Amino acid sequence: MCTSIIYTAGDYYFGRNLDLEVDLGQKIVITPRNKTLEFREIPNLEHHYAIIGMSIIRDDYPLYFDGINEKGVGMAGLNFNGPAHYFPVQQGKDNIASFELVPYILASASSVNEAKKLLANANIANLNFSDKLQAAPLHWIVADKTGASITVESTIEGLKVYDNPVGVLTNNPEFPRQLVNLSNYRGISPTAPENTIAPEVDLPVYSRGFGSHFLPGGMDSESRFVKATFAKMHTPVGNSEVENITNYFHILQSVEQQKGLDEIAPNTYEYTIYSDGSNLSKGIFYYRTYENSQISSVDMHKENLETSELITYRVQNQQEINYQN
Amino acid sequence: MCTSIIYTAGDYYFGRNLDLEVDLGQKIVITPRNKTLEFREIPNLEHHYAIIGMSIIRDDYPLYFDGINEKGVGMAGLNFNGPAHYFPVQQGKDNIASFELVPYILASASSVNEAKKLLANANIANLNFSDKLQAAPLHWIVADKTGASITVESTIEGLKVYDNPVGVLTNNPEFPRQLVNLSNYRGISPTAPENTIAPEVDLPVYSRGFGSHFLPGGMDSESRFVKATFAKMHTPVGNSEVENITNYFHILQSVEQQKGLDEIAPNTYEYTIYSDGSNLSKGIFYYRTYENSQISSVDMHKENLETSELITYRVQNQQEINYQN
Amino acid sequence: MCTSIIYTAGDYYFGRNLDLEVDLGQKIVITPRNKTLEFREIPNLEHHYAIIGMSIIRDDYPLYFDGINEKGVGMAGLNFNGPAHYFPVQQGKDNIASFELVPYILASASSVNEAKKLLANANIANLNFSDKLQAAPLHWIVADKTGASITVESTIEGLKVYDNPVGVLTNNPEFPRQLVNLSNYRGISPTAPENTIAPEVDLPVYSRGFGSHFLPGGMDSESRFVKATFAKMHTPVGNSEVENITNYFHILQSVEQQKGLDEIAPNTYEYTIYSDGSNLSKGIFYYRTYENSQISSVDMHKENLETSELITYRVQNQQEINYQN
Amino acid sequence: MCTSIIYTAGDYYFGRNLDLEVDLGQKIVITPRNKTLEFREIPNLEHHYAIIGMSIIRDDYPLYFDGINEKGVGMAGLNFNGPAHYFPVQQGKDNIASFELVPYILASASSVNEAKKLLANANIANLNFSDKLQAAPLHWIVADKTGASITVESTIEGLKVYDNPVGVLTNNPEFPRQLVNLSNYRGISPTAPENTIAPEVDLPVYSRGFGSHFLPGGMDSESRFVKATFAKMHTPVGNSEVENITNYFHILQSVEQQKGLDEIAPNTYEYTIYSDGSNLSKGIFYYRTYENSQISSVDMHKENLETSELITYRVQNQQEINYQN
């Protein structure tokens, strides 16, 4: 399904793996400050923060999978099929369609705290973008360049906004249960544990990496949550932007879904279509795809953000092999 | 430590992850047909099959970590610290130093079967390359372009050559035990299992990827053996060389060791320094490094293989980001 | 901590393991129909259903750990330290202290459905039995002789009554999370799984019992929940009361906590102090202790239940060895 | 299949769970000192150490499943189907049929060391007791009252005698592999591990017993080996024979196979038919059965051991419930 992380390394890096069985034709999309963002039930935004991220565009509307804004706030929507529950439009609430939530927050919030305020009176309305484009069951992670992070879930019990102390989100079940499960793995370590099962017996550490023997490696949501947490918590801080970005993509790689390993229907497999990540301070968006392991990047500040039309970049999806002879 | 695989996809692709805490300065090294290969206790080879692979060079001698020859045989040495045992030089045996084994086999064998014959009378002699360069405790995997594969282990019980039915090798314990352990995971699947624990109770498959929930994700040798097997057995066959190579590197990525996750001494971490893989039929060598996610390649057949001097290529270790704006 | 089950075998058998670090001096206590049951905030009950179960007695009050009533309703309180939250006495609610809940329900409900009704307006009040005897953080399982079962949890979010489809309760975390976790183990089976990890490779089923290889065996609450579910769901139905009771205790034995395996403070270990179970139709109470593996029993219907004083039986806690010579 | 342990608690206690799908009609059998023990290929023993244990008798021959002798040596045969390999009778070897091995060793060895000597020139001959009673594929554990323990395995590679540092034996795979696998669980502990997966995040120890969360609970041989080791290594020493015996049976109980959980053929289930254990110093044999949880015992020294006829006791297999009213 999907994994989103925030990685702390001097600057903060935020992004995600998109795990799906079909490529939806996403592009890198910059929404400049004066592109009018229309909403169904709340006032449109004519001037707002600029946004960059992965998105499809329908009717000139950016349906972001994930992105960041120029203030260093990042946000991603991840599959939450089952627990996700959207509600009818409610009087007295800020009624926001699920597909509007990423552009709404990124256009308006300069921090996680501001995002929390915007969500305080929100109702995720069960509106579809169109008959053809039904609302997807999602939950969301919001992070900012101070390292703060929240999870947003709309379930049958209403809208919940959780502080996210690990800076990781995957999919079902509900976020608090992911944290409970993470506790089960508290002893996972980069070093081998002491022999406590039979202290009198010589039990050789016959392999390196013994401290992570019980780390899960499954494609399922709980396994990815635990593994991504372990990876991001122990990944070193690099000495440069390039080294940080390199490390960042290795974290996402640790929970990559390889083709063929997650069959969702006969002969249909989910896999990690793309991995992306942005430097929240610098507004630079980086990504790789399953088909192309080279990292590409788009810098939002190299564009004129005072314009009013969506700016798009094609996803570089061809393997670029460096032939040395 | 390390993981080596052979991936079947029309052609056969063979190579490995090198997991270590230090970069030893390896290069891509081509040993042409007339480069004299000297051995301590067996006759030198003045004319032989050409070889390409990752290697360090000492005193003009190619100390290959792994490589392939022009006949489509590949071979890699992997850490086997503990069980590995080399013996004094024995009369009546083909005494081969551990560091000679890869060049010896690749220079002489045109198939796994021929490698088996060469090993039939072999003794892995406990000789060091030099006082400074002690012999490393290793075991080996040999594969060829028919898909055949063997594992070679010299332990206190002598030299064993095992057929390798999975085409995967990691590290300790001994190979037969890795197969026993693999049996424990026989139920791992791309699809969710039936509810057999409590058939009368509705137990929702709350996440995709449920069939691999118990797949291990640790850095240790057993975990990587199981995960790499699952990945390679279910990875689809591509429609082109590029697609196959892409898939191949994703298999190795599934058992990549990220920096920071495997601490072998205080503040010293093992990680996947490079991943490589060759098309056994075509003699093209591909690789990536931890620092540079782009795939590079060297084609042995673009060199003059009838020469007598080692040909080297520098490892491309700088992250090559494709800046789109 | 504790495990409670209901076992279906013609009749229904209900009871629990009590896992604790100290023996609190419990007895088998019968509360006859005319023993006045006093409550702090709700009206006393002067005439009610008779109850039998494990209990300590303070000030002539039966503080039941678990028990059943003459109508075939069983109930047990289990440690729920952390999530458990009791509330101040609330106007308009049926305010029941946590230590009153078992006697209250068993005295008044002739079925799980009736228990649900009694709980519909309940508030678990944060009242202590006395300064010396503080309220324990608990949650509860109620079951009846139709096989119905519910879980009752009072957390910061209020009082929740869940249908319990598995008929098992252990401890933290909250009950819905236990069910989510149980889904992870849906493939556990009495039979070996097919080889799906590497179908082309011969992976011998080298041991019987392969279908339960991933069954957890820990002392922790999630492990016991999963293992007890597997055991109770697959335990056969016996041909007699004795055979059923035998099978029932084997289920509880599967999640027994052995002495020495669960250290809760230096040199202080939790273990399964007693296991008990009752035939919900017949009113016969059976039990064993850690110290005495022989099963003992007390039949409530062999007492005069029309009396007004508590009837007690001493727990048989001496190992009764049958010396054959 | 089966689990055998030696438990250290002042005295030493040795015995096993017999896990099988059928009750073979075993009895408690005492072989007195002058009962002639006949062997096929080695000299008969007319005078020898007295033996007590679980056995079937065929043609007046005691086919012991397990037992101890008056010198404090214990021995058990456990299923080893697959690796077990018996050889043709060999000249110059002590040829012992597999079914003769337990009586031979117990009749002749006063310590594990003496057993080793007896085995030094042994060949396990592939002889059947009779056409109807074929040799079972077994391996063996021998222990003595000093706490010493060995494992004896006859495989295609020959007869191996391993020191057994854990004092546990289950079934396949070969013993050294069980020890390797045990290393994977070295961090299992009675106490919760430190939070090393994400030290900055508060990950509550939400349940007691966290230190054993990854302890396996399966019916398979590897799971039982690990769990029995953990249990026996941490079980406290009692203050009396009864307390020790009580603790001993709880260790075996931790790896009991409940009926219904291990299906070996349609509707045929293996389960723990009996558990037994002897005080190696005192010659007292204790046992329980699946059907009867009360412990029974037979003391060899209460019989006249200077006789020449087998002495048998019936297994008490009826649940003896202590009705308190």
UniProtKB/TrEMBL annotation, chains A, B, C, D:
It catalyses: cholate + taurine = taurocholate + H2O; taurodeoxycholate + H2O = deoxycholate + taurine. Pfam families: CBAH. It comes from the Bacteria. Residues 2-313 form the Choloylglycine hydrolase/NAAA C-terminal domain. Pathway: Lipid metabolism; bile acid biosynthesis. GO terms for molecular function: hydrolase activity. Keywords: Hydrolase, Lipid metabolism. The keyword Secreted does not apply. Its EC number is 3.5.1.24. Belongs to the peptidase C59 family. This is choloylglycine hydrolase. The lineage of its organism: Bacteria, Bacillati, Bacillota, Bacilli, Lactobacillales.
